[in-house]
Fold this sequence. Notes:
The structure holds three protein chains of three kinds.
Chain A: E1 3-10, E2 16-23, H1 30-40, E3 60-63, E4 66-69, H2 75-78, E5 83-87, E6 94-96, E7 99-100, H3 103-111, H4 134-142, H5 150-154, H6 156-160, H7 167-177, H8 185-193, H9 206-210, H10 217-232
Parallel strand pairs in A: 1-5
Antiparallel strand pairs in A: 1-2, 3-4, 3-5, 6-7
Chain B: H1 12-39, H2 45-54, H3 58-86, H4 98-118
Helix pairs in contact in B: 1-3, 3-4
Chain C: H1 2-30, H2 37-44, H3 48-76, H4 81-106
Amino acid sequence: MSTLKVKIWRGEEDGEFQSFEVPARENQTILDVVTEVQRQQEPGLSYRFACRVGVCGSCAMTVNGKPRWTCRTHINAVAKDGEITIEPLRNMPVIKDLTCDMTDFFQKWQKAGGTFKGTVTRKDKVVTIPPSSPKRQKADAGIECINCAVCYAACDTVNWDSEYLGPAALNRAWTLVNDERVGNQKEVLDKAIGDNGCSSCHSQGNCTASCPVGLSPSQSIHGLKRMSLLSFLGTEV
Amino acid sequence: MARSNKAARNHTSYWASIGHRLSGLALAAFIPVHFYVLSLAANDTGALDGFLALADQPLFKIGEWGLVVLLVIHMSFGIRVLILEFLPWRHGKDGRTNLVWVGCIAALIIGVYFLVRAV
Amino acid sequence: MDRMLFVLQRLTALLLLPLIIGHLIVILYAVKGGLTSAEILARTQGSLWWGLFYGLFVVAVAIHAPIGLRNILKEWTPLSRVASGWLSLAFGLVLLWLGARAIQGVVL
């Protein structure tokens, strides 16, 4: 049986790569490989996963220079000459091996106004919102995000400016300012277009090119930029 | 530890943003010199003519050609950014990357025309 | 602050578009046969329209370029947000000063 050469990051920020060899199998994801290494060769290897089927968003890592869901990445899609390099996600501090500290990433969601604040209570009647309404369609386009931080890790602007809120938080803000059930849309918009918000984006599009769900944080951020300019000029948006 | 992001930035929009930034930086470095040289005309046209004669050398012409090309690149990449930011997107992957190539071709054509006129 | 700079940079970009196209046309026209101060001054000296054109150009550039420089300093150098802002403001003032002197030399 042929083998795969796998380089895996070990330790914290000042760690180093450790090389492993695992059997190359017909059907194998990156997560399978990491699991095989941990079960058969290095029990001390730390990594995160939960669902293994692309629902939970916890197994993202940097694979051959690109952030990916390891559970949905087939070996054949990335292995160059049978070699794979696996690192923790970028733009977040490493805790150990392949796990990183996502505190800042989640706090930025709050900074961008990401908490849902409705206008009605459970005693009120449910408001009907036609799925075909333009605003709902804009919100729907970004709503499937599961907070995996792949876009955040892929974004060079986050890498260059650690204060930048990043694509995931701004995409969330965009869905809220288009959601008619949200009561504090002005507040969310002010945060998203304020300091370190959408103005910091340089339209590089790494986020959209990397999103495993096929969402477009770029489109959401540019929607916010458009609102920022038009509202500045006094046009109702 | 600097983690690799090489594969994630291997696409046209990314390189367009880098090109836009570097061309802007080069222009920003040149403009103060440009202004200073023109200000020589205020009381010393001799100094200005001395500089213009110097600028007639081939090496300077190549520099001027570079600045014209950078100006066209920066402007056309900027037009793309303005379109992305202020016109509605047709779909989620609407990066208008075709405009990057249009900008490069425009810079090439205007650059060649500049050389033809200058020589 | 970020938002105001964002809007200012985009609005000056829109203003710069026709100015750059005009500038490029003049460059391509004037470069033939080499440049002399007499040729430049004959075109520009005492002209209200060239004065307005270049005056607007200088102001737009002095706003547009420092905002981009601020981003570069903030993201590509160890300078803080605040330091990048002040340094870029200083660069903008230098541009405005040198630009005003250039117009004084070429138009007045």
